[in-house]
Automatic annotation (TrEMBL):
It comes from the Bacteria. Residues 125-248 form the DUF2520 domain. The lineage of its organism: Bacteria, Pseudomonadati, Bacteroidota, Sphingobacteriia, Sphingobacteriales. Residues 2-88 form the Pyrroline-5-carboxylate reductase catalytic N-terminal domain. This is Putative short-subunit dehydrogenase-like oxidoreductase (DUF2520 family). It comes from Arcticibacter pallidicorallinus. It holds the Pfam family DUF2520. Gene3D superfamilies: NAD(P)-binding Rossmann-like Domain, ProC-like, C-terminal domain.
Length: 254
């Protein structure tokens, strides 16, 4: 397929390279930042622009990979009625693209992306929504060319998936950052926790998360919990977070 990417961030970068590797042609990259558009376009052997009015009009699909709060504004400036316009957001509904567009959809890759780290896109679940059967078929064809896991997901389902992903990924990573800071204060290396983190992640590949839960809260080890709280007395925000998480784990046993 011939594709125009609108956006030059993490998702656009990884998605663009995955699509190109699968044999699709990236015609053009648009970004509000011309230098960012050029940087991604050069790596994809594509044209680039920072003007919506200068978009190539021959693409089969136009993919918006931009911040959620910019989707509606950029979509409203899109000029090619009848063309397929999709966004890659997990939380934005399909109607954010505009009710006047007959051919629209969502192409949501369920993964965390950083430009500095490569991702095997074949393992990334792609969650799709389309405004009609033709769009759904086209998105399924595109998705199947780069991913082994392709699923339909309504706007409501994606909202639930995105909240779950924030808990599983973003919050977990923030907790890693807190752990790193706690260790650093004692002159200890965060790498000490890496085997523990790896084993915890590996367990949920075969066990239900509740069955894999360990630690003082699930054991009802109140003495350890109180020691931890005392250690955190100098950091009341962390102490409050620790208490909240501990109570949530205790509550999960009921």
């Amino acid at each position: 397929m011939k594709i125009v990417l609108l956006g030059s961030g993490n998702v656009a970068t990884h998605l663009g390279h995955a699509l190109k590797t699968a044999g699709h042609e990236i015609l053009q990259v648009w970004s509000r930042s011309l230098s960012n558009a050029q940087q991604l376009a050069d790596s994809l052997s594509a044209a680039f622009t920072n003007e919506i009015g200068a978009l190539n009009n021959t693409a089969d699909i136009y993919i918006l990979s931009i911040k959620d709060d910019a989707i509606e504004e950029v979509a409203s400036s899109f000029l090619f009625k009848g063309k397929l316009l999709v966004h890659t957001s997990g939380t934005a509904g399909i109607d954010l693209l505009g009710k006047e567009w007959a051919n629209k959809g969502v192409f949501y890759p369920l993964q965390t992306f950083s430009k500095q780290k490569g991702v095997d896109f074949s393992t990334v679940p792609l969650l799709l929504e389309g405004s009609n059967e033709k769009v759904v078929a086209q998105l399924n064809e595109l998705a199947a060319s780069i991913s082994q896991t392709v699923r339909p997901a309504s706007s409501e389902q994606r909202a639930a998936i995105h909240v779950a992903a924030v808990f599983a990924c973003n919050f977990s990573n923030h907790l890693y950052s807190i752990s790193k800071d706690l260790l650093a204060k004692e002159g200890l290396d965060f790498k000490l926790l890496l085997p523990l983190i790896a084993e915890t992640a590996a367990k949920v590949q075969s066990l239900d998360p509740k069955a894999a839960q360990t630690g003082p809260a699930i054991r009802g080890d109140q003495a350890s919990i109180e020691k931890h709280k005392k250690y955190l007395e100098a950091s009341p925000d962390l102490q409050q977070l620790y208490t909240l998480m501990t109570n949530s784990i205790i509550g999960s046993k009921k």
